[in-house]
Amino acid sequence: TVYENESIACRKVALRISDIIKSKQRRLENAVLGLATGATPVGVYEELIRLHKEEGLSFKNVITFNLDEYYPMQPDSKQSYVKFMDENLFNHIDIKRDNIHIPDGTLDKEDITNYCLAYEQKISAVGGLDLQILGIGRTGHIGFNEPGSAPNSGTRLVTLDDLTRRDASRDFGGKENVPTKAITMGIGTIFKAREIILMAWNKKKAPIIKKAVEGEISANVPATFLQLAENVEFILDKEAASEL
Ligand code: GLP
């Protein structure tokens, strides 16, 4: 779906999230949301905060799982996704802290495999993701599933692509400071969500959106695997859709 601009598109995504939360509330169930970081979802989070403050949308029945975190990464560091989520969403809503899950960037290397299995199990134990929102990196990554990721991959430690590290260099004050690794949900983990929304704005994303939507399905552009999913919607602004 192509919208006139980013803010209209963000409002639509926020309303979809709010509908899921409210319909679960009516059934006295938890809504389980897969969340993303980066510039792309910020407008969605702003709109959710507005819905909370002005329209009383409650997040007390919401359980969240974030897609990824740099590794290694301390949660209180400026660039951590823990900090990002607190600042851009969690500190401004009534979500219960125990219901928030973000991959742990402080683990010892030998503990990561078990931790990742447990992350998957936690998602299953609460009934699976009702909705996963995604941005897209210029390598075609979703989460941090870089080129070469398998369609059935699970949560795991990955090596970041050079282009991804270059794109992150501004946040870290130089590429050399960007971690070389990350913990990310896998493509297989994302596919298990009952609904997937991939968002992209601006001209900068137009070439990778063309590849993701119209290109040959291949691990070289992990987002092309979404062509195989039936429950996925690409929500774009005019510029991101301009090469389709
Ligand atoms: C990071 C995140 C991805 C995100 C991508 C795009 O690599 N791990 O989940 O989709 O950046 O970032 P942005 O939304 O800032 O363009």
From TrEMBL:
Ranges for the Glucosamine/galactosamine-6-phosphate isomerase domain? 9-227
Give the source's domain of life in one word: Bacteria
Protein name stated in the entry: Glucosamine-6-phosphate deaminase
Taxonomy of origin reads:
Bacteria, Pseudomonadati, Bacteroidota, Flavobacteriia, Flavobacteriales
